[in-house]
Amino acid sequence: MEKKSITKERIKSVAMELFNDTSSLLVTTNHIAKACGISVGNLYYHYKNKEQIIREIYADMSEKFESFEMYEKIQKSEKPIVTIIEMFDGLGELFWEYRFILRDGVLFIAMDADFKAMFIANQAKRIKQIEGIFHFLIAKDIIFEMTQEEIELRAKHQWFISAYWQTFASSSGEIIKESIKESKEVVFELLLKPILKKEFMILL
């Protein structure tokens, strides 16, 4: 059982390296097995297909995101804006580690119904969490008042930029750390600064 667990983790790790380095569409289970130094039959013992590997990698990414407890930390922080900045920096590292998910996520949604279901559930949860942060910042008198409709729209915009910016960036070249940092800057410039009260601007 332990050996199987180690092999599965090895398969995921190698697959992620291959997916990050090139288009995930070009990577096959044969490529993954060869890079792992195992037979294709051994790979299929652990995973039915490439899609299952991708889903498990996405689940790992989501689990790591949850382990940061970012939204809880913001609401407990004495300096929420500083914590938000730190949160985005942490997300940048996570997104770089799993950059193929952000780059090719739209393809996975279109091609794999199970991945799509996972993504949609995660998306709904994240948007609600972002809405909660806006409500918290309003209550703390850090940002200006907004209607619920405005909060929902701004939360969707923030999620859209965070989730899809790398798809946009990859259309004109390879994803680099700078493009991940750029998505943070877009969120702050377009979605946070316009509603941030003057006394907190100095923190950005």
Describe the protein in words.
The protein has helices spanning 2-21, 29-36, 40-46, 50-67, 70-76, 80-97, 99-111, 113-139, 148-170, 177-192. The chain has 204 residues and is mostly helical. The protein folds into two domains: 1-47, Orthogonal Bundle (Arc Repressor Mutant, subunit A); 51-203, Tetracycline Repressor, domain 2 (Orthogonal Bundle), CATH 1.10.357. Helix 1 crosses helix 4, helix 6 runs antiparallel to helix 10 and helix 7 (99-111) crosses helix 8. It is elongated and about 60 Å long. The model has no long low-confidence stretch (mean pLDDT 92).
What are the defining features of this structure?
204 residues; 77% helix; Tetracycline Repressor, domain 2; Arc Repressor Mutant, subunit A
Could you give a short description of this structure?
By secondary structure, the protein is mainly α.
Task: Set down the secondary structure blueprint.
Layout: H1 2-21, H2 29-36, H3 40-46, H4 50-67, H5 70-76, H6 80-97, H7 99-111, H8 113-139, H9 148-170, H10 177-192
CATH class division of the largest domain = Mainly Alpha
Low-confidence stretches: none
* Order of helix and strand elements from N to C terminus: HHHHHHHHHH
Number of DSSP helical runs: 10
Output the CATH homologous superfamily of the largest domain: Tetracycline Repressor, domain 2
Distance between the termini: 49 Å
CATH architecture title of the largest domain: Orthogonal Bundle
- Average pLDDT taken over every residue: 92
Our Rg estimate from Cα atoms comes to 19 Å
CATH topology of the largest domain: the name is Tetracycline Repressor, domain 2
Q: Note the quaternary state here.
A: single chain
How is the biggest beta sheet arranged?
A: none
Q: Which structural class matches the secondary elements?
A: mainly alpha
Number of domains: 2
Can you give the helix content as a percent range?
A: over 70%
